[in-house]
TrEMBL record:
<protein>
    <recommendedName>
        <fullName>Aminotransferase class I/classII large domain-containing protein</fullName>
    </recommendedName>
</protein>
<dbReference type="GO" id="GO:0008483">
    <property type="term" value="F:transaminase activity"/>
</dbReference>
<dbReference type="GO" id="GO:0030170">
    <property type="term" value="F:pyridoxal phosphate binding"/>
</dbReference>
<dbReference type="InterPro" id="IPR050478">
    <property type="entry name" value="Ethylene_sulfur-biosynth"/>
</dbReference>
<dbReference type="InterPro" id="IPR004839">
    <property type="entry name" value="Aminotransferase_I/II_large"/>
</dbReference>
<dbReference type="Pfam" id="PF00155">
    <property type="entry name" value="Aminotran_1_2"/>
</dbReference>
<dbReference type="InterPro" id="IPR015424">
    <property type="entry name" value="PyrdxlP-dep_Trfase"/>
</dbReference>
<feature type="domain" description="Aminotransferase class I/classII large">
    <location>
        <begin position="3"/>
        <end position="299"/>
    </location>
</feature>
<dbReference type="InterPro" id="IPR015421">
    <property type="entry name" value="PyrdxlP-dep_Trfase_major"/>
</dbReference>
<dbReference type="GO" id="GO:0006520">
    <property type="term" value="P:amino acid metabolic process"/>
</dbReference>
<dbReference type="InterPro" id="IPR015422">
    <property type="entry name" value="PyrdxlP-dep_Trfase_small"/>
</dbReference>
<keyword id="KW-0663">Pyridoxal phosphate</keyword>
Amino acid sequence: MEVLACCLFDPGDVLLTPSPCYTRIFVNFNERFQVHVEDVILKNATDEGTVTFELTAAILENTIKEQMKRGKKVKGFFLVNPNNPLGEVYTSELVLQLMSVCHRYNLHFISDEAYAMSVYEPETKFQSVLSLHSKLIDPQKTHVIWAFRYKLAGMRIGALVTWNEDLLRVVKNTSMYTAVPAITQQTAALLLNDTVWLDEILLPTHQHRLYIAANKTREALNSIGIAVRPAQAGFFFWVDLRPFMMEINQSEELALFKLLMEHKVYITPGSEMRSLEYGWFRIVFSAKSEILNEGLRRITDTLK
């Protein structure tokens, strides 16, 4: 992320990203290179009061217009797909619509596909931006980043794929400051070249374990009245704990968070992920079975 902040943006430029979100996006783009990251706020309450957190091309375009009215220079859009913390896999149709909006306003489209191999629902298919090359409106402003660390803990490797040769040249010239150690590169290359192991052992095992843990977690939470937003990927759920709050505000959300911490269970309050809909939390379920069971028990005991 920092490499893109350095190479594509000037200080004061605006990058948009949907929220709730992984908040390191804000730090990575702003801390050293002063890119202003602004929220594309997802809420969209229905007539029944359900918060859908739906992303649409119209929401993105309205946010761009709002920033422009404030005199801001919007230069890019950052999409995490599959989404963190929602666990949603965005369709290729939606991605192309978002790209069309970006093209209309001359924005860079950055697709973070770190969770691409963590799709656990059998009926859900993730389609990378890389597979849409023939449909891209502006390949020169389309960039894909990918991470290895979520599939094999400890392999902290990121990759950038871009059709922009000027960007690629600058990235190569500055790569000494962000280079992956040679021994790590060699190990990763050996693993990635073993396609039989990847396709027949690592990825199916990884996805099956996520599927089992997700179903167990969803059933346990539903049994005590916790609504879980539908998810298809990642290792987390976005859950609604508003029924367990006296009032719907940030103070009550943090009070519930502290109560859970007193029972020695940590789940992330939505406000820490820039959600304006207080009472939603992110629960990570990718733990060993005995640890997950204990965590779910503690949540149940806390909320009784």
